[in-house]
Automatic annotation (TrEMBL), chain B:
Organism expressing this protein natively: Cellulomonas hominis
Stretches that traverse the bilayer: 33-54, 75-101, 133-150, 157-182, 188-209
Biased composition annotated in UniProt, kind: Low complexity: 231-252
Keyword annotations from UniProtKB, A to Z: Membrane, Transmembrane, Transmembrane helix, Transport
Protein name (Swiss-Prot/TrEMBL): ABC transporter permease
């Protein structure tokens, strides 16, 4: 860890000096919440937040782009469903620390191994939900579409997929919240977004304000992204709302 | 691959297995910390889940617990606990146990809630008190789900404990973290294989145990339930996230 991350963090750490100075003046003062810390290090914090949010959004988008076709394939060919879901569960059992680091020899440290790991984990959540959503479509709806002369592919794209949207969006929300929390583990390869702040705070003589600020920002980010996706979900499935009101 | 060869060389070196920082000692630490964390979580979550499920309310509590634990990074809690003056294993056990509570709680709660209302009525009808009905009728019926919850929690804990290596805890994760620090990628890959292997083996063993403990007539039902359970959106993910990690799990 110190070999790979230590030098980087100490280079881009204007907070240390201030912290050390403050600590020298009053060794006992190490508050968990400090507005002063936030003001003085805002550039640093916002950079970590940006990294965190960017990584999360990118990972979820890539995972969506893979998971939806994969889920549809598993739905069309039910024989493939069991192996796909089974492989997902096995991969999901592998700890993030192991998955992130095992890729390093081939990808180098930094953004790539974290992104790949995050995509894998988000993928597993998403594929399951796509599959559940598609197979949960009302049989009579399917019958009606077939009676109207819909082919298999048209049925899937214009009837089943829209009907599965609520389940898919629920999956995206779950995957996003999980991903936000997972990004922090990226510190092990030197790219952990807000986790980088937590780790540095821990390293820097247990700088409480730095750790807690990063934690709270993590929670806030998860909440905000969750809310955004929920709103998008509401916007793209207006029939669900209308049904409830009627 | 060169790195893979390094990894196997590392794994083949008996010196890496014995000693204070050997695989065996670290593995034992890993298992001990995990067992303590699951035990601690079960001590809190089982009674709470049974009570809430028996009273048939408190669904909100379990959902809030599950959602919060999903959004809160395990790594954050580990650093917070590790920097409050709790040393080594204590901080790890506490932080990891917090994340093991929601899966046990929600599964216990759901297990008791899913007991057929007619069955409860019948138990009261033959003169059982609330407590007797709980002990003799509801709990046995809820056991498969309670077991599934403990299993999810255990897998998730095993996957989370390695993270503690970043803040000074000792576990199989220490091999990975040390390898990263020294840029010995063979050791990193070996550590990752060990951690992943441990999780997969324990998961397999627990699945077998659960199958063996479930009476044959209930197997089909519990199997179907279990397969459905992880798919449901409200189910906490395995590793941290797991996570989850996990995450479930909370996967982290």
């Amino acid at each position: 860890m110190p070999g790979s991350v230590g030098p980087v963090t100490s280079l881009e750490n204007p907070g240390t000096a201030a912290h050390v100075a403050a600590a020298a003046g009053d060794p006992a003062a190490n508050p968990w919440l400090s507005w002063d810390y936030v003001q003085r290090n805002w550039g640093d914090i916002s950079r970590a937040l940006e990294q965190h949010a960017g990584l999360t959004v990118q990972a979820v988008l890539i995972a969506c782009a893979i998971a939806v076709p994969l889920g549809m394939l598993a739905h069309l060919r039910p024989r493939l469903a069991a192996p796909i879901v089974g492989t997902s569960s096995v991969l999901y059992t592998i700890p993030s620390l192991a998955l992130f680091t095992v890729l390093v020899p081939w990808t180098g440290i930094g953004r790539t191994p974290v992104l790949i790991g995050l995509v894998v984990y988000a993928l597993l959540v998403l594929v399951r939900n796509v599959l559940v959503g598609l197979s949960g479509v009302d049989e009579s709806v399917r019958d009606a579409a077939r009676g109207l002369g819909y082919g298999r592919l048209r049925l899937l794209l214009t009837v089943e997929l829209p009907n599965a949207l609520p389940a898919i969006i629920a999956g995206v929300r779950l995957a996003t919240v999980t991903t936000v929390a997972l990004v922090t583990v990226g510190v092990v390869v030197g790219y952990g977004g807000l986790g980088q702040l937590m780790f540095r705070g821990f390293r820097n003589n247990k700088y409480h304000a730095e750790i807690l600020t990063a934690t709270l920002l993590c929670l806030a980010l998860a909440l905000v992204l969750d809310l955004l996706i929920w709103l998008v979900g509401r916007a793209v499935t207006p029939w669900a709302r209308r049904g409830r009101e009627a | 691959m060169d790195v893979l060869q390094d990894a196997f060389t590392w794994l083949n070196d008996p010196l890496n297995w014995t000693g204070r920082d050997g695989v065996l000692a670290l593995g034992a630490d890993h298992l001990r910390i995990s067992a303590l964390a699951v035990l601690l979580a079960a001590l809190v979550a089982l009674p709470l889940g049974v009570w809430l499920g028996h009273r048939r309310r408190g669904g909100v509590v379990t959902v809030v617990a599950a959602n919060t634990s999903r959004a809160l990074p395990t790594f954050a809690l580990l650093t917070i606990f590790a920097s409050t003056g709790l040393f080594g294993a204590t901080a790890t056990v506490l932080a990891v146990a917090v994340f093991a509570v929601p899966p046990i709680l929600s599964n216990t709660f759901t297990g008791l809630m899913e007991v057929d209302a007619d069955v409860r009525d019948a138990a009261r009808g033959v003169g059982m008190s609330g407590g007797r009905s709980l002990a003799l009728v509801e709990l046995p019926l809820a056991l498969p789900l309670v077991g599934a919850g403990l299993r999810t929690a255990t897998t998730q804990v095993l996957a989370t404990v390695p993270l503690a290596a970043l803040v000074g805890g000792s576990s199989l994760g220490s091999i990975i973290v040390q390898g990263m620090a020294l840029q010995r990628y063979g050791q990193v890959v070996a550590g990752a294989l060990l951690v992943a292997g441990l999780c997969l083996v324990v998961e397999g063993v627990l699945a077998a145990v659960q199958r063996a403990l479930t009476p044959a007539p209930m197997r089909a039902t519990s199997g179907r339930r279990r397969r459905r359970a992880p798919r449901a959106v409200s189910e906490p993910p395995g590793p941290a996230p797991a996570a989850t990690g996990q995450q479930t799990v909370t996967r982290s």
